[in-house]
Amino acid sequence: MWDAVLCILIIGGFFVLRAVFATIFFLLLIPEGDRCPNCDAVTLRIESRGWNFLLPRMRTSWCFECGWHGLLRNGPLSPTQPLPSSAERQSPRAGGVQP
Ligand SMILES: [Zn+2]
Question: Which of 6, 20, 52, 75 registers the highest number of CB atoms within 10 A of its CB?
Fold first, then answer.
């Protein structure tokens, strides 16, 4: 009787350990940050109720360059370029070629 219980505990323990190690392994394979794993472009964070509820520490992302969408680990974000001010945007028109 104890042999059967011991056998079930050992086999069940290895089954659970395998699932835990596989989860950790695949979690570490997910890239960190906000770069697309396909084209290395900056991705946009999108809202996905299901994934954000199940994995709140992951970043649901969409790449507008190649259309990839998936999960990324939270990490350092790429620096953004500041938007040109309204004066800089209008300066080429105002200072254009004059006859
Ligand atoms: Zn991409």
Answer: 52
Distance from Cα 25 to the centre of ligand 1, integer Å: 23
CA distance linking residue 76 with residue 56, whole number of Å: 17
Domain ranges (residues) in the chain: 32-76
pLDDT in tens, the chain (99 residues): 889 999 999 999 999 999 999 999 998 898 889 999 999 999 999 999 999 999 888 999 999 999 999 999 988 888 877 777 766 666 555 554 555
CB contact at 8 A, 68 and 60: no
Cα-to-centroid distance, 50 and ligand 1 (Å):
22
Ligand 1 center to 44 CA (angstroms): 10
Q: Ligand 1 mean position to 38 CA, how many Å?
A: 5
Can you give the pTM of this predicted structure? 0.60
